[in-house]
Fold:
Amino acid sequence: MKNSNLKILFEDNEILAFDKPAFLVVNKSESQKDKVTLEGILEEGREKYGLNEDVERFGIVHRLDKETSGVILVAKNYLMQKRLQKEFEKRRVRKTYLAIVNGEVRDETFSIDAPIGRNPNNTMKHAVVKEGREAQTSFKKVKEITLDGNVYTLLEARPKTGRTHQIRVHLLAYGHPVVCDPMYLGRRTYAENIKTFPRLMLHAQSIEFTHPTTKETILIKSTPPKEFKI
Structure:
């Protein structure tokens, strides 16, 4: 299977962390059945990665969007999978992302607390909606970037909740959508972005949590891809 040599960022007897490349889909589905997915790689490499037969979805603990790169956790056994999922549910897993957005962000730090749900005008998308689920993200400005006459801003994002497309939807609502977002950008902005950037500019840079068994603090980092080093 292509892309089966995933980079391992962390491994012990119970947990694996991979460096997911952009465009690798996490979960298998009917629409993806003939394509490479993380779940398919783990199924094929169950023995190689030491995954027990009892794990669900071949140990995958959480989600990353197809276009997003970076750290993703996998449990080697069912008990660890459930314990890690509970850590995510209780918001005890600290995640940090890098995002390059359109325009000049003036705030050095800011937080967005706005509920997210299905977009009533297009159920394939999500949006800030009154009846949505609670969603909170904090942001820190890293630097401004000017390329090909356009201004962009590199941000660090820390989601406190885990809603679908949370960072992308919050930044869209804030007026500074993520660069090269194929779902949430207008055609003109996307066409301008893609001249300079190769893909959705969102990277899961780190995950920090307390190991459920050893009680050690585990910090796993992924080096940002070259397109972020600007």
